[in-house]
């Protein structure tokens, strides 16, 4: 048992990386080198008594340097961890809560459920996911909604429900050909009972693995939205005479990405690189976890059956 | 199921989906901005009448005049859409062919590598690369180009090689996807009885592989062709946006006219969005049909 477990490197790595993220999320604000208040440092005297102005390069004071207001970048990222992860988790959970029952409804590959799943999947395949997200998130009632974050989470979840439901339905269709399912049907069990006690346990491993991989996909989508300067949470304020602007009010990583996006063009890479790297880190963590779980379940399946 | 009915059904579902896209796009989103002496106010009047009017206007223009109207530059939408689609088609076609061919090759190499001690470079390497977000890769490359190779013109659509850089960026992820599918379906063939029979009859290994294993895998790989197309289409936007390439996905984003000042700006071009979505729809449908027909051909064998 022990020996087999050790071999599953992706699972260990993935769990370890998720662990790091969770520690950052829960205890990050209390770490000694994290400035919880995110206070801007407008100027600073260097060791040889020279005046320094922000943005500061990486140093003992700022592990990853600071932005142009003198706010520590590392602290910003750490303080945004919780929000980012909760948003990603929220979107993915909601997506699966809608998609899995819908997929089970469509398992016979015919009828209303099937048409809904197919249609849903197709609608959003003609417009790339990211564009569908932009199109829907910028509808005025959603753009100016009071609880924009909640609506944004629902919209981003719904866009890809069709894809997940389709995968679930196809898999359920395959499972439906197994003998023990036919036995259940022969016993005359209700459709609901069949879905809950026969299909769901058989599908659970793949759904869990898919969930982990979708966490990564959602993270990527949010990152892409950040690149296009679309915030999940913002206020509309007047920034200049008669010039209103949507300003980001959140610290999540994609918002950080949006803030610094333009700086690449002037060859200042650092600011945009760190949030992007953290996003990459968490996508990798989710994928490793998914792959590890897949292997683990495959092994289990082989030893018991 | 009859092949013809299958093709017809996918056409029908596409038409339904296209209708839904039209309904989403035509949803009224113009915000009235009024300037008072001291401040700027916005007002969003939604009425179903306006919505119905927009839908009616769109369809009457489409069916009576056979056009989609003019865009913000007073240029016929259809010509504009065809122009940008032309620019994107080169990228899409190059990426589709290249990612498929290279992906299958990479899959075969991965499968072979997995049996040697260079396993890390095989399917695990493919998988690891697939886990990196595309925009990080593009950002890194962009920064590298700007900083170290300023004489390669990555932001210009003029040089003859302009379509190759976006094709390369778009291709990476779908290629890895196909490589994984190929590698998995080849290893699924392992130990199949028909292979043992063929082997016992003295067929050489390479012939065994290409005549039997590969032909069987082709069916599975081809079923993933529509997903490949979707990956390419969704990568297209980020790549075109980053490289400022005058393609369809970039034009689509411009047509949505997302403004940081008012949400949806005054230049929202509904008909352009519908036109480009229609072209994407045709592409996806086309690939779906190829996939259905090809699957049938390989299944019969």
Automatic annotation (TrEMBL), chain A:
CDD domains found in the cross-reference section: TM_PBP2 (cd06261)
Locations listed in the record: Cell membrane; Membrane
Annotated Gene Ontology cellular component terms: plasma membrane
Bilayer-spanning residue ranges: 12-31, 85-107, 119-142, 148-165, 271-290
Keywords from the named record: Membrane, Transmembrane, Transmembrane helix, Transport
Gene Ontology biological-process annotations: transmembrane transport
Domain of life: Bacteria
Bilayer topology: Multi-pass membrane protein
ABC transmembrane type-1 domain boundaries: 81-290
PANTHER family: OLIGOPEPTIDE ABC TRANSPORTER, PERMEASE PROTEIN, OPPC IN A BINDING PROTEIN-DEPENDENT TRANSPORT SYSTEM
Family of this protein: Belongs to the binding-protein-dependent transport system permease family.
Protein name: Peptide/nickel transport system permease protein
Organism: Paenibacillus aquistagni
TrEMBL record, chain B:
Transmembrane region(s): 7-27, 81-105, 126-148, 160-179, 213-233, 273-294
Location of the protein in the cell: Cell membrane
Membrane topology: Multi-pass membrane protein
Iron is among the record's keywords: no
GO cellular component, one term: plasma membrane
Keywords: Cell membrane, Membrane, Transmembrane, Transmembrane helix, Transport
Pfam families tied to this protein: BPD_transp_1
PROSITE patterns: ABC_TM1
Domain ABC transmembrane type-1: 85-291
Cited InterPro entries: MetI-like (IPR000515), MetI-like_sf (IPR035906)
CDD domains: TM_PBP2
Superkingdom assignment: Bacteria
Record-level GO BP terms: transmembrane transport
Protein family membership: Belongs to the binding-protein-dependent transport system permease family.
Name of protein: ABC-type dipeptide/oligopeptide/nickel transport system, permease component
Lineage of producing organism: Bacteria, Bacillati, Bacillota, Bacilli, Bacillales
